[in-house]
Amino acid sequence: MAVCFQFQSPLKPINFPVSTPRKVPLLRCKASFSTTSTTEIEPVFTSVKSFAPATVANLGPGFDFLGAAVDGLGDYVSLSIDSSVTPVTGLGSSAASAAAAAVAVNELFGAKLGVDQLVLAGLESEAKVSGYHADNIAPAVMGGFVLIKSYDPLELKPLIFPQNQELFFILVSPEFEAPTKKMRAALPAEVGMPHHVWNCSQAGALVASVLEGDVVGLGKALSSDKIVEPKRAPLIPGMEDVKKAAIKGGAFGCTISGAGPTAVAVIDNEEKGKKIGQKMVEAFLEEGNLRSVAMVKRLDRVGARLIESVPR
């Protein structure tokens, strides 16, 4: 029996109704999938289609332990069953594809796995590609902001951004490659105590701002990294000037999304975000000689979810 995957990638803008956010508890799970069972699980659908959102990782001082999901941008995964061929287990190359695939496979076989197991499945996939870090896959599966409290065992803490507060991500992606391996190699092997203390305090401020719905405070903390961003920004032409343009244009904060090259800024007004995004595009072109595309997206509060399915 074969599971056939159809990926729509890279990330595509999407539009669909957002359902009520799921209540996700603090997750404590051990990364082990060993089993002695040899029983083959029978699928309950002939095909399924799922979606998982794009994510913004690190968020300035939250390197490898903070991430957020972005609404209206992500990957679809469609799966169908061919009962005459042996199953295939490959997943996508990004967290969004991995999360959507995990949800689709889970639904295909009767939704037997919980959120914690879906995160672990996606994390194992990510480990093969970009390393064992959950700041993309966790928010892709769970939605919203997610804090990684521990990796061994894996402990995830959803940070609930207030429903009555608006938060928009200004995402500006230049035509430039910033391989994760290269960007990680640029990081310092040792960190001085002053910078360590500063980043820890700003990470705490970032978490507090998320929980309080304080977009201004969130932006300030997001912009405050003294360890990772200073090493990576010079590797992306124009990035430092793009950040200045975002702040000057009225953004509450700006940093590198994940390993880059996308710049992410935050604001509480969509129309203002579009104007700031244009200023950032101009800065990439003028200072970095890079063409870029700007998008303004809300926080995705739901995470990976099923779009459609066809029962047997």
From TrEMBL:
Signal sequence coordinates: none
InterPro entries (UniProt xref): GHMP_kinase_C_dom, GHMP_kinase_C_sf, GHMP_kinase_N_dom, Homoserine_kinase, Ribosomal_Su5_D2-typ_SF, Ribsml_uS5_D2-typ_fold_subgr
Keyword line: Amino-acid biosynthesis, ATP-binding, Kinase, Nucleotide-binding, Threonine biosynthesis, Transferase
Listed Pfam families: GHMP_kinases_C, GHMP_kinases_N
Boundaries of every GHMP kinase C-terminal domain copy: 208-283
GO BP terms: threonine biosynthetic process
Annotated GHMP kinase N-terminal domain residues: 76-144
One term of GO molecular function: homoserine kinase activity
Name of protein: Homoserine kinase
Native species: Hibiscus syriacus (Rose of Sharon)
Taxonomic lineage: Eukaryota, Viridiplantae, Streptophyta, Embryophyta, Tracheophyta
